[in-house]
Amino acid sequence: MSDVKITRALLSVSDKAGLAELGAALVRYGVELISTGGTARTLRDAGLEVRDVSDLTGFPEMMDGRVKTLHPMVHGGLLAVRDDPAHAAAMSEHAIGAIDLVVVNLYPFAATVARGAARDEVIDNIDIGGPSMVRSAAKNHRYVTIVTDPGDYGELIASLEQSGGMTSFDLRRRFAAKAFAATAAYDSAISQWFAFADQGELLPPTLAFAMQSRDRLRYGENPHQQAALYLADGPHARGIAQAEQVQGKALSYNNYNDADAALELVAEFREADPACVIVKHANPCGVAVGSTLAMAYEAAFACDSVSAFGGIIAVNRPLDRASAEAMSRIFTEVVIAPDADEAAREIFAAKKNLRLLLTGELPDPTRPGLAVKSIAGGWLVQTRDNGRVSRDALEVVTKRAPTQQELEDCLFAWTVAKHVKSNAIVYAREGATAGIGAGQMNRLESARIAAWKARDAAGKAGWAQPRTIGSAVASDAFFPFADGLLAAVEAGATAVIQPGGSIRDEEVIAAADAAGLAMVFTGMRHFRH
Questions:
Q1: Looking at 139, 178, 236, 351, which residue is catalytic?
Q2: Homologous superfamily assigned to 253-364
Q3: What is the reported pLDDT for 60?
Q4: CA 308, CA 301: separation in Å to the nearest integer?
């Protein structure tokens, strides 16, 4: 494929950034400029000669600008195969001139939606002529150059300068691929708005979504896998992908995955006292609240000091000197916080391998949204697990009701269990996890592992007894048999929170009564696979 000389260009953009500079560069190489509406005015204001599209087509812009470029004089000039005799004859017969360059960016649909515009204004900002020109030019990239991103103006100008006003096939091919991605993302945003916002359909018959690459990662979950970080198009809640990285080397795929798990859990406590979450391999290994961040960290660390090494820490308050000093005593991969004062930043700066991420705010754990998971041959899509239970929604099912402290411990353990891989068992006492059992094939083993971890933590700390003594225990789903509950009794738990709903609920309740436990049902489960 050969280089193509740019002789005529059609420019129609909503984003005028860099437009005058691009127009001037094109004129320097003798390119005829054709344009519409506001784009033409901007070019003329820059002292450039511009031909109106209406002059080219013989029809005025009409219907508030909705009809201006949808015409054979435009699309014939874009789609004609220049070395096809039949195409050339048709161009000659109908006096259609070739258009060699199209510069288009589309109506700001997503921005219009994001600022809460009324429905009629949103509809008006669905671009029709722009995507049509983009697709025509991109399809015929053998002859036509298409530019949809103002960020690419510099590369286009450099190509003109290096080749005397021409573009290479490689550049046209790359820009064409980017153009089709741009129109696909644009249509995706429109289809999502119609489904979710306009019609309230959370799981539409066709689900289209677009993502923009932000970073190419060193590798994926394992070194033989490739990976990248993509950001969803359109307005979305801030999350780990938008966090500011203050220091440290680039995050890996696993770092992002673990950091996301830590941020989502600590966000559950965004209105609470200072809270700290420590995550390892996407599971929390310690969670606590305290009167200070340093105290919350120490309590979370004490739950499982072995797993905390090389873990991810997330907190719900700005970092200070005391918390930074405490966290710096062992190797930590990532620390996540809304902010950090100068003293904390200086302390972490001495840890060259530590990544410090500042989120500015914590995401809302109750926000709506979709969770997407790939499977062989398809995708599983569900709404986010944003469910919560209140004290008033709890059902006391045992003879003994929980005390005020037991109830608080139950709710704390339940909040953590929501973010632990199933089967999940969490022991908690006085605002701190005492033991966490995650990802086992049966609930009994999770209960035993959590209790074992608590005993191990007590031995390392020199405590007289594990913190599971007098604790509350949360189960992410119902106990199918009484054995898991009896394991919690053996560990020293005095209160239980679980969804209920098993055919053996009565057997489990009877076992709880026999052990003197207080137990509440939530009516909601939190499987996390």
A1: 139
A2: AICAR transformylase, duplication domain (3.40.140.20)
A3: 63
A4: 7
